[in-house]
Amino acid sequence: MTRAAEALPASFEALASDPAAPDGFARLALTFVADGRTVATVTFRYGEGVTSLPAVPQKDGYVGQWPDRDYTCLTYSQTVEAEYTPYASALAGDSGETPQVLVDGSFSPQAKVAVATAETSFTDADGRTHSGTAYTVTVTDPVFGAPDCTVHFRKPDTAARYTVWVQQGETWAEQKPGVDGSYLLIDCPGGQITFLAEVTTANVWLILLLAAAILLAAAVFVIIWCKRTRKPRPKQPENAR
């Protein structure tokens, strides 16, 4: 072999694969860093990779992950920075300017909400029949699973009062909703609920009974007031008889 041949350039890949190369020559490293702190350093050989990544440190209010890349074929040392994304606090059931359904809670960026509707009819424990459009709200979150949350349901008639019925297995139970402007607030444990929002109708007989009671009370007051304010008639003189 001539000196000229000995001086021919060789790629790092060829050198790393040379059995005569020192063991540490082809050993590279990935350094995992989160918020400026080193989490782990994982070594690998040129052209190979790492089979598992260290856990991303938790950060309040954020979801953390390592960058989505191919870690199975690596050719140089590098530093990998953790990526943190804030929790989502609300999910919309549709893309309208004022959504019919909003879900409030703490969700990962991958969380989704699905809203399905169906006409339904049922009888409550008192034998009264209720019917209308039932809404089924389902939250799926691959990070947090099935989180407890609050459903915000926009009232179809903002001036009306509503009663909310929640399906529990084969039965329906009345739930007292909160109110936030034009939205009803409905508890949604486990990220799934089926409910019916029904306009509350007044009891006609109760209204008539209350009206009669008010009129009776007013009549009694007028009679008592008249008796108290009536002036006594003056007595006539004896010689005027």
Description of the structure:
- The chain has 241 residues and is mainly beta.
- It folds into two domains: 3-85, Immunoglobulin-like (Sandwich), CATH 2.60.40.4270; 88-199, Immunoglobulin-like.
- The protein has three helices and 15 strands.
- It has helices spanning 3-6, 12-17, 204-229; strands spanning 27-34, 37-45, 62-65, 78-81, 83-86, 88-92, 101-107, 112-123, 129-140, 149-154, 162-168, 171-175, 178-180, 183-188, 192-199.
- The strands form four sheets. The protein has a five-stranded antiparallel beta sheet with strand order 6-7-10-14-13, with no helix packed on it. Strands 8-9-15-11-12 form a five-stranded antiparallel beta sheet, with no helix packed on it. The protein has a three-stranded mixed beta sheet with strand order 2-1-4, with no helix packed on it.
- The radius of gyration is 38 Å and the shape is elongated.
- The mean pLDDT is 83.
Characteristic terms for this protein:
transmembrane helix, five-stranded antiparallel sheet, membrane, 3 helices, mainly beta, 241 residues, transmembrane, elongated
